[in-house]
Amino acid sequence: MTEIRVPTLGESVTEATVATWFKSPGDTVTMDEMLCELETDKVTVEVPATVEGTLSEIIAKEGDTVGVDAILAIISAGEKQTPKEIKAEEKATSNHQESTEKLTSQSNIEHAPSAKKLLKENDIDSSQVSGTGRDGRIMKEDVQAALKNIQDEPTSLSQIPAGSSTSKMNQEIILEQPQERIKMTRLRQTIAKRLKEAQNTAAMLTTYNEVDMSSVMTIRNKYKVDFEKKHSVKLGFMSFFVKACCHALYEVPEVNAQIEGDELVFNRFVNMGVAVGTPTGLVVPIVKNAERMSFADVEKTISDLGKKARDGKLAMADMQGGTFTISNGGIYGSLMSSPILNYPQSGILGMHKIQERPIAINGEVVIKPMMYLALSYDHRVVDGKGAVTFLVRVKEALEDPHRLLMDV
Predict the structure, then answer these.
(1) Burial class of residue 31 (count of CB atoms within 10 Å of its CB; 0-12, 13-18, 19+)
(2) What are phi and psi for residue 37, nearest 5 degrees?
(3) For 52-108, how does the pLDDT look when each residue is reduced to its tens digit (9 = 90+)?
(4) 160 near 170, Cβ under 8 Å?
(5) CA 84/CA 75 separation, integer angstroms
(6) Neighbours of 345 (CB within 10 A)
(7) pTM of the prediction?
(8) Of 12, 113, 262, 387, which has the fewest Cβ atoms less than 10 A away?
(9) What angle do CA 201, 207, 213 make, to 5 degrees?
């Protein structure tokens, strides 16, 4: 008998919630096969089988809160089935032979645990989803795309005959279920707690500016093909903003500082947090030592972290130690917002939608691709002059990227 226990969850994390079991009691498991997912207030942790055998008992059910090293399940390692069990299994195999033959090509594929969770939650058969992963493996985004297709083609009540049983049933559902209650995930609870903590603790203030994105867009369009050929990653806008912020943080170091007790801690490095929206909530993976990275390194790191975030694969180390954060609401169409600090950091830059607007230049009105920038900062650490100077330096670096090369 082998006990499956809660693994080490990371620094300062002492408990988790059992999110999903992929196996049931009586199921045969192989070494390193995923048994369940644990949800902490920061990341999702997969728990594999440590031995081969039969899952004889599940101790911690879905929704239970468990501490580090708590027993999750028990595996009977190496136990053989009795003749009666073998006979029953052969009978079940015979009954399902036809469906098994149809799914032979898919049965040996181990889909992403996060995808299995979504499939189970939405009662979707894996055969209805096209996998884009290796060997047809279904990934989380594949299930999300399938769900979107379902949502995009709803059957309107107006299209159903008024006297039909389906119409009456739908009307009864609408009348009987005007609300839906879903327990908040640990991640969502932590997000709520952290954001409110930032508002209650920091003297938060936001300053705004706007930037002409013409130069960045010109450089990106000119070199994006060669850049991708050489570095095997697309050249996006985020690397320009990360490098521009690193440039500005060296001139205004207090924006990269934080309060610890009665001391100000000035960081001589830039661990850049990049906010990423996922189906379960907002997470902020860290691009560590971004000031030392090239544009290609920044793009590769952000791409890797973004994929891990969407697949629920981020480790604790991926989200610890940030000193400054960038949040890009523009990808959702936001034109202007005031981002909330990722406490205890003292600054967060909000990017927004690029929109063509008429701008007066040398007495003439011209159309330019403009973006509003917002810097929220902790006024206990950063004075107004420093905040405005930082945002102006970011604006200058983006409007004339040669400044990044010349370090001026």
Answers:
(1) exposed
(2) -115, 135
(3) 889 988 998 888 888 888 899 998 876 544 444 545 555 554 554 544 444 444 445
(4) yes
(5) 20
(6) 25
(7) 0.64
(8) 262
(9) 130
Crossing angle for the helix pair 295-310 and 214-231, nearest 10 degrees? 80
What is the CATH number that goes with domain 1-80? 2.40.50.100
E strand or H helix that includes residue 378: strand 364-378
Number of Cβ within a 10 Å radius of residue 225: 11
Q: Which of 32, 69, 96, 379 is catalytic?
A: 379
pLDDT digits (tens, 9 = 90+) for 287-314: 999 999 999 999 999 999 988 888 878 8
Q: Which CATH architecture has domain 191-406?
A: 2-Layer Sandwich (3.30)
What is the rounded distance in angstroms from the CA atom of residue 237 to the CA atom of residue 239?
Answer: 6
Say which of 383, 400, 402, 407 is annotated catalytic.
Answer: 383
Alpha carbons 350 and 336: distance in angstroms, whole number: 9
Q: Phi first, then psi: give them for residue 252, nearest 5 degrees.
A: -125, 75
The CATH code of the domain at 111-151 is: 4.10.320.10
Q: Distance between CA atoms of 197 and 233, rounded to whole angstroms?
A: 37
Q: Answer yes or no: 125 catalytic.
A: no
Is residue 383 part of the annotated active site? The answer reads: yes
